[in-house]
Write a structure and sequence with these properties.
Elements: E1 9-24, E2 27-39, E3 42-46, H1 53-60, E4 68-73, E5 76-77, H2 83-90, E6 93-96, H3 108-118, H4 125-138, H5 154-166, E7 172-176, H6 184-201, E8 204-209, H7 212-218, E9 221-226, E10 229-234, H8 236-240, H9 245-254
Helix pairs in contact: 3-4, 3-5, 4-5, 5-6, 6-7
Length: 258
């Protein structure tokens, strides 16, 4: 079942995964998974470290090729795209990396300008500055515009990383462990920001995490990845009301209460 949300278009599948398998030698990471993500939906892929969560989003982004199965993103079979087609598709995707992936030698302003300049889009300096200011305002960090990443806290760097993605106005967001290494208060700020991005930018998102608080607060649905398969897919309540001992153990491991 899907948690209903007026912003989600349940007739429009933006990511369609069927029979996806990926191995590295004898390590069978993904063993045949199926998943649909709807336009405007936040879906959390939940699992412990090393379960294949990051491999999944790398395949979605065309950074890895599947061994079997198909991944269609915005109507395109990712594995069949040539270099130029893949680059065009990636312009429609936003990546929020666990490390924030900011350039240390660039100011915040320069970090945000970089993807727009690299994309080849023709944009004047006035429009560029407006885009940078809006993206920073949307993540609540307008005051950092001329600072270096080294002058920012971990939470601020995460938010700047998201702002740099938003400046490209992506249709799909891919968040890789967005709250990893953050204190509870900063983690809550990132969770709130993920929901604000969904609301303001009407994005569809995959959120990779092992943080149950993040999963509960940001996901319209959860997909629990274990031993290379999706063990359960549903709302937070549906997943964790399940009597499967493996689900209960994962819940207890996170030490949270609903």
């Amino acid at each position: 079942m899907i948690q209903q949300n007026d912003q989600i278009d349940y007739n429009n599948v933006v990511i369609d995964i069927k029979g996806l398998k990926k191995s590295f030698g004898s390590n069978h990471v993904l063993r045949g998974i199926d998943l649909e993500i709807f336009k405007g939906e936040n879906i959390v892929v939940l699992g412990r470290s090393g379960t294949g969560k990051s491999v999944l989003i790398k395949i979605i982004a065309g950074l890895l090729k599947p061994d079997e199965g198909t991944v269609n993103v915005l109507g395109k079979n990712v594995a069949e795209l040539d270099y130029n087609e893949l680059e065009q598709l990636r312009l429609r995707l936003g990546f929020s990396f666990q490390s924030s992936a900011l350039y240390d030698s660039m100011t915040v302003r320069e970090n945000l300008a970089f993807p727009l300049q690299r994309s080849g889009k023709r944009i004047g300096s006035q429009d560029l500055n407006k885009s940078i200011e809006k993206a920073l305002d949307d993540v609540g960090l307008s005051q950092t515009i001329d600072q270096l990443p080294s002058e920012l806290s971990g939470g601020q760097r995460k938010r700047i990383g998201i702002a740099r993605t938003l400046i490209m106005q992506p249709e799909i967001m891919l968040y890789d462990e967005p709250t990893a290494g953050l204190d509870p208060i900063t983690s809550q700020e990132i969770n709130d920001l993920i929901n604000q991005v969904q609301e303001r930018y009407h994005t569809s998102s995959i959120i990779i995490t092992h943080d149950l608080t993040c999963a509960k607060e940001t996901g319209n649905r959860l997909a629990v990845l274990l031993d290379g398969i999706f063990l359960h897919v549903g709302t937070f309540e549906e997943v964790f009301e399940n009597q499967d001992e493996r689900i209960k153990n994962f819940y207890d491991y996170n030490f949270i209460t609903t």
